[in-house]
Amino acid sequence: MANIEVTETSPNSFSVTVHGSQVTTHQVSVKPDYAQPLLSKSQTITELVTASFGFLLDRESNTSILRSFDLSVIERYFPEYPQAISRYLK
Hints:
The chain is α+β, with helices and mostly antiparallel strands and 90 residues long. The protein has 4 helices and 4 strands. It has a 4-stranded mixed β-sheet, covered by helices on one side.
């Protein structure tokens, strides 16, 4: 299983390092208006980004994940993402 490290680099921007068969780094932006409906009151956007990478890694290798993207792009590739992400948030 891959290890996911998420660091907020500026408001609404995150650097994500995935330690899988190869180490990859990704830049992810998150619009708060997009994130809020996906989160419960106690969850953070950092937790959402981490969970989103768990979701992605269940579907593709870390080397296949875009290197830079807005979180809302996931839904274009995987329409089930908004409904499924709650299972990945802890």
